[in-house]
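FAQ: What does the model actually see?

It sees only this:
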Amino acid sequence: MAAPGGTTEQEGSAVAPASSRDFRLVWAGTSAGRLGDSVASFAAPLVAVTVLDASAFVVTLLTAAAWLPWLLVGLPAGAWVDRLPRRPMMIGCDLVSVAVVASVPIAAATGALTIPHLLAAALAIGTTTVLFQTAWAGYLPAVLDSRQLVPANALLYGSESAARVAGPGLAGLLAGAVGAVAGYALQAVTFLVSATCLALVRTPERRPPPPPKRHLRREIAEGIRFVAGDRVLLNLASHGAVSNLFLTGYQALLVVFLIRQVGLTEATVGLLLTLTALGGIAGAMLAQPLMRWLGEARTLVLTKSLAGPFALAVPLTEQGWRLVLFVAASTLVVLGITAGNVISGSFRQRYVPGEILGRVTTSIQTLNYAGIPLGAVLAGALATAIGTRSALWALTVAYAATGLILLLGPLRGRRDLPTRGAAV
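And it is asked to produce this:
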């Protein structure tokens, strides 16, 4: 991987990543996979609620199962990815995912679909997602110049946000026209498109020299030590862990809340979540202009920390004008998260040495995502104990407070993020 890029102005001098045929293939494949994920993320609770009549707690278990693999295989996944070529691993993950996801509509068609089947599918897809995302994080800097990472990630996060815009609405339409399980069938197709696009890439992956053979635990420990010894990476990962605990918690209850408590139809819920996801497109588009104006560090801290307070409008949702408030507030939450993710993801890819990027990525993501399954289970337990709306209040208030981790952290007062080897 090339040395870390310099200032924001230097990034503009690099060749636009979209001019590369191979990047366009990666972009298209990633976008297809994200569309499938977006459709399925809405279809899964929809199937559980409308087809299998699941409780709020069971619905949140689907979210927990999808993210639990980060705790189970996240750390060794980083070491595996650093040892192996990334693109073949990504293609293999896509193909396994096709088979797993396709099993859901097949089971539904034969009358054999059950909650344990949905949970097992979520767990399996979560496992392939861990491997795919870890490989993908290291693959991008292995085929692009470091100065292209921010614009490339802006395009990728933008298309991911566009997929989140289209996904819920598409899932809602499919549910009304064909049935809720149709979302799973569409996801299987998108995984196949992703694998095909990656198979057509011709650019060779730049691989660091193979490391000496060592014990897997030592390689994992090296990634953990790198993160633990870097104040900025540790602060970002800690914020991600705590914020995801409460963010995913309240989001895991949204479909149940909007359908059963607010009284909306599946199609209306899909439309609301589609409008909300527009914030992701705006966040991806605004990340670079905000960086030039405020600096990388300030933009990262402000966008992520200010996203939380807007979530406080979610428990106020009722039919009528408050649906507009829900959409506006939720859109701003997604905008802040996406803009911050563009910057933090690009920073990590250029800041961490390529030979340990996989292990560092999974060390961060394991901590970052550790809160997600816990938050989903917490949300289900709270909804069972005190009611869905009260649970949303507790979770959104806690989420709003998590911005203090960044506001009081090592990036406080800095305009720009550090370069590799610089003291913080």
